Amino acid sequence: MKKLLFVCVENSNRSQMAEAFARIHGGADIEAASAGSRPSGRVNPKAVEAMRELGYDLSTHGSKGLESFNGQPVEVAITMGCGDECPLVLANRRVDWKIPDPRDMTPEEFRGVRDLIEAKVKELLASL
Fold first, then answer.
1. Catalytic: 68?
2. Model confidence, pTM
3. Domain range 2-127, CATH architecture
């Protein structure tokens, strides 16, 4: 089982969608999670709607912090380009995707970021 951890500041948009796509496309050998350095405590309704359009219910996810992942081994820790680091997470590999924060984007722009995240997740999964 390969564990993936997606990290951004609020754990409300990018990392949540990345976790969802890893679950959708990863199969039985992948365990995906997400967390934030300063979690907002909620998943952005725009992210919930963007994923609902693809048939995934993101409303079942919760925004959470990194604390529970400290000292836990993961195959890959992926940051979303928000300058976050997770030095206490024991990652075999660290990747930064530099994905723009879609929080204040229009629905169309938000979908573009969602689709970019899906492509990056598929690329990552293919490299494992």
1. no
2. 0.94
3. 3-Layer(aba) Sandwich (3.40)
